[in-house]
Design a protein that fits this description.
CATH topology: Ribose 5-phosphate Isomerase B, Chain: A
Number of strands: 5
Order of helices and strands: EHEHEHEHEHH
Mean pLDDT: 95
Structural class: alpha/beta
Helix content: 40-55%
CATH class: Alpha Beta
Shape: globular
Strand content: 15-25%
Strand order of the largest sheet: 2-1-3-5-4
């Protein structure tokens, strides 16, 4: 699995440590943008990771900022991205199993490094369940096209 990673200045330390861990575990993890800790604007990081995922250059993406909220809002503006803010193992698992999230956003300020790494492990190993959830993902895709999701049927 090829994983795009990035962060703003508040998440820089966490994303670098997560990148190292994922690489040690054999993942193809790609650190995108300047994650040195220099002050930056999170939408730029969300854009580069979102585009890499939407264009198929990476399978999934992980973004880290102070709360995870800004990254999620920005990443969800990229067509084809389903970014979810996750705070624990359960939200990580459900964001993949039910929502087919392809970008995970986490908080550097609210979560410790150990929890960020655990959440990432759960998120990466969870598969999309399909079934009734597939219809909902199709409705989200319709919304990206400006189509009323109520018009999407099985």
């Amino acid at each position: 699995m090829k994983i795009a990673l990035s962060a703003d200045h508040r998440g820089a330390g966490s994303v670098r440590l997560l990148h190292e861990k994922l690489c040690r575990e054999g993942h193809e993890a790609v650190l995108m943008g300047d994650c040195s800790g220099t002050a930056c604007d999170y939408p730029e990081r969300a854009w580069i990771v979102g585009k890499a995922v939407a264009e198929g250059r990476c399978d999934v993406g992980i973004l880290i900022c102070g709360t995870g909220i800004g990254m999620s809002i920005a990443a969800n503006k990229v067509k084809g991205v389903r970014a979810a803010v996750v705070h624990d193992e359960m939200t990580a698992q459900l964001s993949r199993a039910h929502n087919s999230a392809n970008v995970m956003c986490v908080s550097a300020d609210l979560l410790g490094q150990r929890l960020i790494e655990t959440i990432a492990e759960v998120w990466l190993r969870t598969e999309f369940e399909g079934g009734r959830h597939s219809r909902r993902i199709r409705k989200i895709a319709a919304m990206e096209q400006g189509v009323d999701p109520a018009t999407v049927t099985d």
